[in-house]
Amino acid sequence: MTTDNSSITAPPGAAPVGESLGRDAWRRLTQNRAAMASLALLVLIVIVCVAGPWLLPWGLAEVDWNAFGTGPTLEGAHYLGTDANGRDLLTRVLYGGRVSLSVALVASFVSLVIGVLYGAISGYVGGRTDNLMMRFVDIMYSLPFMFLVILLMVVFGRNIFLIYAAIGAVEWLDMARIVRGQTLALKRREYIEAAHALGVRDSKIVTRHLIPNAIGPVIVYVTLTVPKVILLESFLSFLGLGVQEPLTSWGVLISEGVDMMESAPWMLLVPSAFLAVTLFCLNFLGDGLRDALDPRTR
Amino acid sequence: MLSYTLKRLLQAIPTLLIVITISFFLMRVAPGGPFDGERQLPPEIEANLMAAYHLDEPLPMQYLRYMGNLLQGDFGPSFKYKDFSVTELIAQGFPVSLEIGGLAILLALLVGLPLGIAAALKRNSTVDYLVMGTALTGIAVPNFVIAPIFALVFGVLLAWLPAGGWNGGALPNLILPVVALSIQQIAYIARMMRASMIEVLGSHFIRTARAKGLNEGEVIWRHAIRPALLPIMSYLGPAIAGIITGSVVIEQIFGIPGIGRYFVQGALNRDYTLVMGTVVFYGVLIVLMNLIVDLLYSALDPQIRYDD
Fold first, then answer.
1. pTM for the full predicted model
2. For residue range B106-144, what is the model confidence (pLDDT) as tens digits?
């Protein structure tokens, strides 16, 4: 692969090489139509979920006494129908989207921070520490995690902050392995040696030199973590272990929809469609980013 | 090989210890107990019950007692399903979960592998796009959405198959849960098989095989498929774990008397011993499955040997 550096003019003071790498990846990503369409759709979903509830006439728990379990209709502005308690489904789906997306963001971020720091330290320090830290990851891998998360939710009550933490604490393992591998490959490079020779502290080498250079695979992996997290949250909610009333999430809505599926199929189909489209887009975007950041995989 | 197996089994011991310890103490610090019901029990009766199950002892004592019993293969009595020991409940539920899960994995391999190979051989053709598009849908639509829709369409609207129930494992009752459970795995396996097949087909030994004049069928069957199967093998460990967790939902939706249902209900009812029993059981199962997968891996790939 050749990159035409001459066409890119770096602003004074910026590192031209880093810039061109990022731009190169961006150019490849923009050429991937599926990924760009997914990105646009995702942005749209986020905007709608954030701004939508303000524009709709109904509130999250507001009951329309004239419409219990009605299908999609323009009458009374229930564009996607109401649930069995007369609450507007579109409004609830959008509020649920806020919760599901926030879980996705926060939990992925938690797993990102733990995983990157753990992996970078393990790889950088090396030796016995590395061995010990990775053995710990191996042990964690063979835990039936789903069950521990379920236990956590049962034990400490269904609380959204606990969901953030529990899911984040489950998903960091792969990230730690990936970052460790990257770090091992990077730490013998000359610029690390140079930093050493200049007397830069170890903590600074890890945060300023190692982690930024290992960022490519990390970004790709994060986009693959986000759909997993959304799925996990809705799985918990589906089992009745997710967020509590009056809050709602796509998983909660789906499970309500399952109960009402025969008489009110839209209650199942609408939140399912939102969830599926979001997951679909995230997967496409993740694939696109992987192709863009790592040309070898093509 | 034998020493490797032994070493792995030894390594599994600390893992299981951690699992048991974490879940034991998690369950106990939870507010509420197994005898909280609709009706408040008279204090004497509750005290008697607590004493009968040794719940009045200090926590460390209970822990040691539990571990001691566990070493003798005794999971203790269930608090909610009176008259049943946890061992009996697991012995009842496991064959059911195993049947559903095993059939789902089998179905996933039987459908996923050929689809992935076909997509790789006809790369960038309509077949490829069709298979990969469908696979992505399978990944994006979780099984707790697929399962109820299946139950609604095939069970209620078309009434071809029973929408739920177990009926002693009769074939019509099996079809919907097994298919619902396998769809996501089919999608993953097809995608992985396509990717690894494409990689293998681009390698030197395939070029050599073609150059020496083997026909395409022989190149694919004799040379390409075996190495391409390797990543699938290592995926099977996590896949089995995934099937197990997936079956929690599927058993719930279709009303199947497997272990998954016991776990969720046990956790909600504070049935300490039942939850512990299922967690330990699944822990052992996952450890064993990972070991078997690793051993099979070495059988498929002679470059990997475990004789350190």
1. 0.76
2. 999 999 999 999 888 888 788 888 888 888 888 888 888
Structure tokens at A136: 């710990």
Tokens of A182: 């990257």
Q: Could you say which DSSP state residue B161 is in?
A: S
Cα–Cα dist A276/B141, whole Å: 5
What pLDDT was estimated at residue A2? 44
Pick from B134, B129, B144, B141: nearest CA to B112? B134
Which chain B positions have a beta carbon within 8 Å of A231's beta carbon? 142
| Token pair belonging to B10 | 């030894």
Gap from A138 CA to chain B (nearest CA, Å): 9
Answer for the pair A293, A219: CB distance below 8 angstroms, yes or no. Answer: yes
Q: How confident is the model at residue A245 (pLDDT cuts 50, 70, 90)?
A: confident
Distance in Å, alpha carbon of A7 to nearest chain B alpha carbon: 32
B238 by Cβ neighbours in 10 Å (0-12 / 13-18 / 19+) ranks as middle
Domains of chain A: 24-55+91-297 (1.10.3720.10)
C-alpha distance from B252 to closest chain A C-alpha (Å): 9
Which residue from A43, A84, A93, A38 is spatially nearest to A64, judged by alpha carbons?
Answer: A84
CA count, 13 A, side-chain hemisphere, B12: 19
Chain A contacts of B142, Cβ < 8 Å? 231, 234-235, 275, 279
Q: Mutate which of A100, A134, A141, A154 to disrupt the B interface (most B C-beta within 10 Å)? A: A154
Token digits for A33? 């139509």
Place of tokens 């075996």: B226
Mean pLDDT calculated for residue range A175-190: 83
Which chain B residue has its CA at the smallest distance from A284's CA? B136
Q: Taking CB atoms and an 8 Å limit, are B15 and A142 in contact across chains?
A: yes
